[in-house]
């Protein structure tokens, strides 16, 4: 057991997702089993860049509303966030009247930038007011609790999840809506093109021919809840968010520390926070962006944490299936880990020509049964901002639910 008593345990009771795989968690899981999505040309003008593709949400799946907030027109990112939030709250059975007390913690890197870019392309000379994404979600769901937008680059929603976890453990809230959302932006694509870190083919982590990452848009939202509160209202949890840890390389603005010391620290401390050991982990969802140095550093760090088990421990390369969703990546990974535990399965990975420098197991021919109670999630970011999360089976005989929401008993 972890160091927190049962009254401070935190469970996952609701999930919502929109990505290139479709809308809803059933579409997300089915899409992973089917091999993931495919890159498409970005529907923006003037993309005079080497890489102009993303893993895109079907434009028909992007909600038209809310169209605005506090007089500001909204782009796709906040609208996707609101839609995924409504899915997650409905999935958790949080009544509309109870939402007023639900804090929102949202990881988002570029926010409403796509609307700004659309307006500039149309000839508007002035930038409109920037809009905190968490404020939009809070207003739409009726929350009057704390609303926090975390802009910590590609680990933003990983940090958001740890903040939500800490809020519940500290007794500041019984239920927190946490997640991430990103839209299509020229700024993000352009930045990685200029850095030489954008792959023109696809996102292919751990592949010997990888040439950088490729973005994806979408939103993933998760309802975190105090285990005792969930029990009292008869909520059926998917899994437990059992541990989390942060660390910082403080090494370079964009490159990871080649030593991997701080990513090892994040993984080790997250497991300790969960009261688990490496042998309790049945799968790892790595950060795995497809950038040459990142994948090697993470592979070596996994060997330091898991030792001889590393070559027998399955990795699930989520970004190869939905792209790098930047600020939303941690939330998508946590949601995916939750579904993997519910189905007791790690789906087969997208086929790669594996780099021998990345000496890890990336199963490609078939799905792999989970043979341990936990999944470890890693999210890293520019500036050396690292988070690791541990999602585990619900313990103590609590009723849970499968990926379609039906009751199962553990």
Describe this entry's structure for a reader.
This protein is an alpha+beta fold. It has a single domain (7-396), classed as Peroxisomal Thiolase, Chain A, domain 1 (3-Layer(aba) Sandwich), CATH 3.40.47.10. It is built from 11 helices and 18 strands. It has helices at 25-33, 76-92, 113-121, 133-141, 156-169, 186-195, 227-232, 261-274, 292-306, 319-322, 329-343; strands at 10-19, 22-23, 40-41, 53-54, 68-69, 72-73, 104-107, 147-150, 175-182, 218-226, 239-248, 281-285, 345-346, 368-369, 374-381, 385-392, 399-401, 407-409. Strands 1, 2, 7, 8, 9, 10, 11, 12, 15 and 16 form a 10-stranded mixed β-sheet that branches. Strands 3-4 form a two-stranded antiparallel ribbon. A two-stranded antiparallel sheet has the order 5-6. The longest helix is centred in the first third of the chain and has 17 residues, at 76-92. The chain is globular. Residues 403-410 have low confidence and may be disordered.
Helix share, percent: 25-40%
- Strand segment tally: 18
Rg, Cα atoms, Å: 20 Å
Strand content: 15-25%
Spans where pLDDT lies below 50 across 5 or more residues:
403-410
CATH topology: Peroxisomal Thiolase, Chain A, domain 1
Please identify, by name, the CATH architecture.
3-Layer(aba) Sandwich
Number of domains: 1
N-to-C terminal Cα separation, in Å?
Answer: 17 Å
Any descriptors?
11 helices; two-stranded antiparallel sheet; disordered C terminus; globular; Peroxisomal Thiolase, Chain A, domain 1; 18 strands; 410 residues; single chain; ten-stranded mixed sheet; alpha+beta
In short:
The chain has eleven helices and 18 strands. Helix 2 packs across helix 4.
């Amino acid at each position: 057991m972890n160091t927190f008593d049962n009254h401070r345990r935190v469970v996952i009771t609701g999930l919502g997702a929109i990505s290139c795989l479709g809308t809803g968690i059933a579409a997300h899981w089915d899409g992973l089993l089917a091999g993931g999505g495919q890159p498409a040309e970005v529907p923006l003008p003037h993309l005079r860049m080497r890489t102009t593709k993303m893993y895109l949400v079907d434009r028909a799946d992007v909600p038209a509303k809310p169209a605005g907030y506090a007089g500001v027109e909204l782009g796709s990112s906040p609208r996707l966030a609101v839609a995924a939030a409504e899915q997650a709250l409905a999935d958790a059975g949080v009544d509309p009247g109870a939402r007023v007390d639900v804090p929102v913690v949202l990881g988002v890197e570029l926010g409403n930038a796509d609307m700004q870019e659309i307006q500039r392309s149309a000839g508007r000379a002035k930038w409109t007011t920037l809009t905190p994404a968490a404020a939009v979600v809070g207003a739409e769901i009726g929350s009057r609790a704390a609303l926090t937008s975390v802009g910590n680059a590609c680990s933003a929603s990983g940090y958001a999840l740890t903040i939500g976890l800490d809020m519940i453990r500290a007794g500041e809230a019984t239920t927190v809506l946490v997640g991430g959302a990103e839209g299509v932006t020229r700024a993000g694509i352009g930045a990685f093109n200029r850095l030489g870190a954008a792959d023109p083919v696809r996102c292919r982590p751990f592949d010997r021919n990888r040439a950088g990452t490729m973005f994806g848009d979408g939103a993933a939202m998760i309802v975190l809840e105090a285990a005792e509160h969930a029990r009292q209202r008869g909520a059926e949890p998917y899994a437990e968010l059992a541990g989390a840890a942060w660390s910082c390389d403080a090494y370079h603005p964009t490159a990871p520390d080649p030593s991997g010391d701080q990513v090892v620290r994040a993984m080790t401390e997250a497991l300790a926070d969960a009261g688990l050991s490496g042998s309790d982990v049945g799968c790892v969802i790595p950060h795995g962006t497809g950038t040459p140095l990142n994948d090697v550093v993470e592979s070596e760090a996994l060997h330091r944490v898991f030792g001889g088990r590393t070559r027998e421990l399955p990795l699930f390369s989520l970004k190869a299936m939905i792209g790098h969703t930047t600020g939303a990546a941690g939330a998508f990974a946590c949601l995916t880990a939750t579904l993997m535990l519910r189905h007791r399965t790690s789906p087969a990975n997208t086929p790669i020509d594996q780099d021998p420098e990345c000496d890890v197991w990336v199963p490609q021919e078939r799905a792999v049964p989970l043979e341990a109670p936990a999944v470890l999630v890693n999210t890293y970011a520019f500036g050396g901002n690292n988070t690791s999360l541990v999602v585990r089976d619900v313990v103590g005989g609590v009723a849970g639910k499968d990926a379609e929401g039906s009751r199962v008993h553990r």
